[in-house]
Automatic annotation (TrEMBL):
PANTHER family: BIS(5'-ADENOSYL)-TRIPHOSPHATASE, ECTONUCLEOTIDE PYROPHOSPHATASE/PHOSPHODIESTERASE. Pfam families: Phosphodiest. GO terms for molecular function: hydrolase activity. This is Nucleotide pyrophosphatase. InterPro entries: Alkaline_phosphatase_core_sf (IPR017850), Phosphodiest/P_Trfase (IPR002591).
């Protein structure tokens, strides 16, 4: 079994001398004595995408060839979606424990669907995601932990859930990001965290393998190259991702809102196109489970909530988070996706690339270590 995204920050914290942090990734053995680490998460840079990315990315190509740094495979957590993965990274625990169980979730006791990327104040981040982060743990241990993020991320519910405890540094979009990360790294020992969404955005809007996706790869490789070239002698660069992805062709898309059989008995639709949480009307769960199982056979695995939790896909489950999971859980296989055009913004149906399910192409991510 590959190591997990949950191990990255605890291992980095151990490398920086935080007590009780377990270096399960062996960073101390591979990187030696360093007193500062810059960790960059490249959104959407899945393990299986690296060979194609390398066509436009000399540094990544050198890493993939074994000539530069150290490369190994990790797994993200399920669902393979950005909010879930960022909080798994930040807390070091599985989604069943931290509660960010999908891109969108039903707020229990209401018909409201919370979009984690648009989340501001409600529910309160500390209640919705109660697990301490490794940024908090580092700060409590006296180790500096800074997060350099786009200005509009600062103060959001997701930022607080994933990174609370970090010293937040807003970065304007026109700023030379690599230079700012380097300057912050040189300023003081500790951890500096950076994030770039370009590759994921291009994959969603234009598709994996599109010209725009390859252009994003060029920009990301340039960012990483500048960081490597300017690393001080006592610093290390770690690069990872939150998920991979795949393109979903038009004929592999099912719109639940255009099929009365799929709509019947459903109260709230949450999740995302590759993993759907269906919250049912009272007494309708068994019928919804049977209908979806019959109509989506071969294109998705359909579970009851209890079956999904028992499968271990979410890791250990805090019982407080159970109501956030649908009565019926639909996990797409192959290249399929379940749209919900009456429940989601219209741009969702226009996306080309998707992720969220449990296939290798979505779950496998890299960890790159560079000195």
């Amino acid at each position: 079994m590959p190591h997990s995204i949950c191990e990255v920050l605890p291992s980095a914290a151990a490398l920086l001398g935080v007590p009780d942090a377990a270096d399960t990734l062996g960073l101390t053995a591979s990187l030696g004595a360093v007193d500062r680490v810059v960790l960059v998460l490249v959104d959407g840079m899945g393990w299986h995408l690296l060979p194609e990315l390398a066509d436009d990315a000399p540094l990544l190509a050198s890493v993939l060839a074994g000539a530069t740094g150290r490369l190994r495979q990790l797994s993200c957590t399920f669902p393979s979606t950005t909010p879930t993965s960022l909080v798994s990274l930040g807390t070091g625990v599985q989604p069943g424990e931290h509660g960010i169980l999908g891109f969108t979730l039903n707020v229990p006791g209401t018909d409201r669907v919370l979009s984690h990327i648009r989340w501001r104040d409600e529910p309160p981040p500390g209640e919705w995601q109660p697990v301490p982060t490794w940024f908090e743990r580092m700060a409590h241990a006296g180790v500096s932990a800074r997060a350099l993020l786009p200005q509009w991320f600062i103060g959001s519910g997701l930022t607080e859930a994933a990174y609370r405890g970090a010293h937040f540094v807003p970065t304007p979009p026109d700023e030379a990001y690599a230079q700012r990360l380097t300057d912050d790294l040189r300023a003081a020992p500790g951890l500096v965290y950076g994030y770039t969404p370009d590759l994921d955005t291009a994959a969603h809007v234009f598709g994996v393998g599109s010209a725009q996706w390859h252009e994003a790869a060029v920009r990301i490789d340039a960012l990483l190259t500048r960081l490597v070239e300017s690393l001080p002698a006592n610093a290390a660069l770690l690069v990872t991702a939150d998920h991979g992805g795949l393109n979903v062709p038009p004929d592999a898309r099912i719109d639940l809102d255009t099929d009365p059989r799929l709509k019947a008995g459903i109260r709230v639709v949450a999740g995302e196109p590759r993993v759907r949480y269906l919250h049912t009307q009272p007494g309708a769960a068994a019928d919804v489970f049977a209908t979806w199982g019959e109509l989506l056979g071969g294109r998705a695995h359909v579970y009851t909530r209890d079956e999904a939790v028992a499968s271990g896909m979410f890791g250990p489950m805090d019982h407080r988070h159970l109501p956030r999971i649908g009565d019926v859980v639909v996990v797409c296989t192959g290249e399929s996706a379940v749209l919900a055009t009456e429940h989601e913004p219209p741009e969702t149906a226009r996306l080309v690339g998707f992720h969220g399910a449990g296939t290798d192409s979505e779950m496998a991510i890299p960890l790159i270590e560079l000195l």
